[in-house]
Amino acid sequence: MGYHRHAFNVLISNRLGFHRQLPDTRNDRCKDQVYPRVLPAASIVICFFNEAFSALLRTIHSVLDRTPGHLLHEIVLVDDNSDTDDLKEELDSYLQHNLQGKVKLVRNQKREGLIRGRMIGASHATGGRTHNTCSTSHLHLFTYDGGMDIWGGENLEISFRIWMCGGQLHIIPCSRVGHIFRKRRPYGSPGGQDTMAHNSLRLAHVWMDEYKEQYFALRPELRNRDYGDISQRVAIRRRLQCRSFKWYLDNIYPEMQLSSSHNKPQPPAFINKGLKRPKILQRGRLRNLLADRCLVAQGRPSQKGGAVVVRKCDSGDKEQEWSYDEEQELILAGLLCLDMSEIRSSDPPRLMKCHGSGGSQQWTLGKTNRLYQVSVGQCLAAVDPVSQKGYVTMAICDGSQAQQWQLED
C-alpha cells in the first residue's frame, strides 16, 4: 500500500525516523569555505501533496538540524490540498506540540500544483529581508509564471527569464539538497491533463521567439492547443527589455545544437573549467545481431527528445558512434544520452540531455549482449528485424537475438 501510494518504501522511511544522520558528500574543500557572519535570515518554502508523513517530517527536521538558527527565519509549509488523513489533524498536532513558532502551515483550498504552490508560500514568507530597496523589475524577475499548471517546465522558464533579462543563475557546489527520485509519479494532475505540454507551450510562446518552431517540429500536435493568456508575461519581457532567445543559445547554452541557418556558434559567456565527464569505457557502433543494423537517431543526434531506430551500419558515419562510460550512460555522437521514460514506461527510448543521475539513463551491456535498462527492468529489442522503419522497443528480457547488441568499432 505504501509503495503503491508513494512510489518508495514507506516502511523503511518510517523506520528511519524524523532525524537522519547523513555523511558529508561534498568536496573536502567545502569545509574550508568562509562565509560572511552577517547574512539575511531566510524563509524556506516546502510544498507537498499527499506526501508520506515520515518523509515530510524528516525533510522539515533536516532543515532545522542543519541550518544555523540565526539564518533560518521560518519554514513555510504549503499543503496543496492533500487528502490523506495523517496530513490533517495529525500534522497540525505535531507542529503545534513540537515545532510551534518555527513552522508556518498554509493549506490550499484547491490543488494549485508545485509552481503556484511555491508562489503562495513566498507570499506568506516574512524572512529574507535586507536593507536593500528592490525595484518592481527586480520582483518581476524572480516570479514564476502563475499561468503554468501543477508541474513541469518552470525550471526552464526561470532560466530563460533570468539570463535573458539581465540576471544570472549560479551553481553553489558546497550547498546541497537531497531529492527522492521515484521511478514514477505517484500522483497525477487534476483531470489527467498534460501539464507539461501546457507549460511548455507558454514557455515557447513567451521566450523562444522563432525557435519555438523547433519545439513544434517535435510536437506538431500541440501547435493549435490552448495555453491560456500570456499577455502579462509578454509585457514583463518587453518592460525589462530582455534579450532574444538566439542570444541565450549563443551565449548561455552554446552546447545546444539547433538546425537554424543563422545559429552560428559564439564564445560562451562563461566556462566551467571544473566540469569532468565520466571516463569512457568503450566506443563504437551499437549493432543489433538479429537485424544486423545499428542503433541511430531517427532524426538528428542533436535533437533532444528524438527517437532511435536501427539503420544500415556505416563505419564512417560519426553520427552512429556511441560512447559507453563508467556511469553506464550511452551517449550518441558525444551529444545526448539514451533515455527511458520512468513515467511512461511503454514509450520507446529517446535521446535526452545527459543528467548524470543514473536511473532513466543507466544501461548495462554485459557478456550476454543484452542491453538492460536499470530503471524499468527491461531490455532493448528490435521490433521487426526486416522492416525498413527500424523501430525499437523495451521488452521483458528473454535472451532472444532481437535483444542482442554489440558495441563494436
Describe, in plain words, how this protein is organized in 3D.
The chain has 409 residues and is an alpha+beta fold. Among the domains are: 131 residues, Spore Coat Polysaccharide Biosynthesis Protein SpsA, Chain A (Alpha-Beta Complex), CATH 3.90.550; 129 residues, Trefoil (Acidic Fibroblast Growth Factor, subunit A) (Trefoil). It is 25% helix and 17% strand. The protein is built from eleven helices and 15 strands. The strands form three sheets. Strands 4, 5, 6, 7, 8, 9, 10 and 15 form an eight-stranded antiparallel sheet that branches. Strands 11-12-13-14 form a four-stranded antiparallel sheet, with no helix packed on it. β2, α4 and β3 form a beta-alpha-beta unit. The longest helix has 14 residues. It is globular and about 65 Å long. The relative contact order is 0.08.
